[in-house]
């Protein structure tokens, strides 16, 4: 069975949705480590309560380069069996750009969730971008991580309607509910080895 590592920075609601779903739906993957770059991330307590080991690798004040920081992450993942061969890494609200070295080592083994329909509204504040732009629909994208920002092959997307008069907060809340469905679904597809990458596209069997 594959081992799963989840990287968080804060609330951890997507991590929680993934962990719950693994238990409930018997997804063939074992969550072995949750890593946060912030000691006060709320998600850490949730993971511990759910019986998953946690580790903090503080990024604030870290003196080395991005790739030196990521080496620490890679070492924690490896120690817990999350290897490129035998693992999956989920970025779940992990508020750091990861180094090209990390992406290369875990090629097509790192996935991320983004609160918009990529390629629209990449980067920060995606929900605000959608509201400000006047988009009629936005949504959720789960995608592989490559060396760009929110540019890797898309695994799945879900659509959320933008209502007239929506605030960023109102839209974000509805998108988050969809995120909690989409991320576990994508992990399931990956764990069941149903995601094949072909160029920049994925084919789901
Ligand atoms: C989510 O909206 C996710 O799409 C974005 O960061 C947020 C993380 O929320 N990348 P949570 O920590 O999973 O609750």
Structural description of this entry:
Its EC number is 2.1.2.2. This protein folds into two domains: 1-107, 3-Layer(aba) Sandwich (Rossmann fold); 112-205, 3-Layer(aba) Sandwich (Rossmann fold). Helices cover 36% and strands 25% of the residues. It is built from six helices and nine strands, in the order βαβαβαβαβαββαββ. The protein has helices at residues 13-25, 42-49, 66-79, 100-105, 126-133, 168-191; strands spanning 2-8, 29-36, 54-56, 87-91, 110-114, 137-144, 154-161, 195-198, 201-204. A seven-stranded mixed beta sheet has the order 3-2-1-4-5-6-7, with helices on both faces. Strand 8 (195-198) and strand 9 (201-204) form a beta hairpin. The longest helix has 24 residues, at 168-191. It binds 5-O-phosphono-beta-D-ribofuranosylamine (GRF).
Outline the fold blueprint.
Layout: E1 2-8, H1 13-25, E2 29-36, H2 42-49, E3 54-56, H3 66-79, E4 87-91, H4 100-105, E5 110-114, H5 126-133, E6 137-144, E7 154-161, H6 168-191, E8 195-198, E9 201-204
Parallel strand pairs: 1-2, 1-4, 2-3, 4-5
Antiparallel strand pairs: 5-6, 6-7, 8-9
Helix pairs in contact: 1-6, 5-6
The structure holds 5-O-phosphono-beta-D-ribofuranosylamine.
5-O-phosphono-beta-D-ribofuranosylamine binds next to helix 1, strand 5 and helix 6.
User: Distance between termini?
Assistant: 19 Å
**What is the number of E strands?**
9
Assigned CATH superfamily of the largest domain = Formyl transferase, N-terminal domain
**Unreliable runs:** none
Strand content: 25-35%
Order of helices and strands: EHEHEHEHEHEEHEE
Per CATH, the class of the largest domain reads Alpha Beta
Rg to the nearest angstrom?
16 Å
Summed up, the domain count is: 2
Shape estimate: globular
The main sheet orders its strands as 3-2-1-4-5-6-7
**CATH fold annotation of the largest domain:** Rossmann fold
Q: Cofactors and ligands present?
A: 5-O-phosphono-beta-D-ribofuranosylamine
Overall mean confidence score, pLDDT: 97
What share of residues is helical?
A: 25-40%
Under the CATH scheme, the architecture of the largest domain is: 3-Layer(aba) Sandwich
Structural class: alpha/beta
Number of helices: 6
User: In this structure, how is the largest beta sheet organized?
Assistant: 7 strands, mixed
Keywords: Transferase
Protein name: Phosphoribosylglycinamide formyltransferase
EC number: 2.1.2.2
């Amino acid at each position: 069975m594959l081992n799963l590592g989840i990287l968080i920075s804060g609330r951890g609601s997507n991590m929680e949705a993934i962990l719950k779903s693994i238990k409930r739906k018997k997804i063939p993957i074992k969550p072995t480590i949750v890593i946060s770059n912030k000691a006060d991330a709320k998600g850490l307590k949730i993971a511990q309560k759910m019986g998953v080991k946690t580790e903090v690798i503080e990024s604030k004040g870290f003196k080395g380069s991005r790739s030196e920081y990521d080496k620490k992450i890679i070492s924690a993942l490896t120690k817990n069996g999350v290897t490129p061969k035998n693992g999956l890494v989920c970025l779940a609200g992990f508020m750091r750009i990861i180094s090209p070295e990390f992406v290369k080592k875990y090629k097509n083994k790192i996935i991320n969730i983004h609160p918009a329909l990529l390629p629209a509204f990449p980067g920060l504040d995606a929900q605000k971008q959608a509201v400000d732009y006047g988009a009629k629909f936005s949504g959720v994208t789960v995608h592989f991580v490559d060396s760009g920002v929110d540019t890797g092959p898309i695994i799945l997307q879900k659509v959320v309607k933008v209502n007239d008069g929506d605030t960023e907060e109102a839209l974000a809340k509805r998108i988050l509910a969809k995120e909690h469905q989409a991320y576990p679904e994508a992990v399931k597809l990956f764990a069941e080895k149903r995601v094949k990458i072909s160029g920049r596209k994925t084919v789901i069997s």
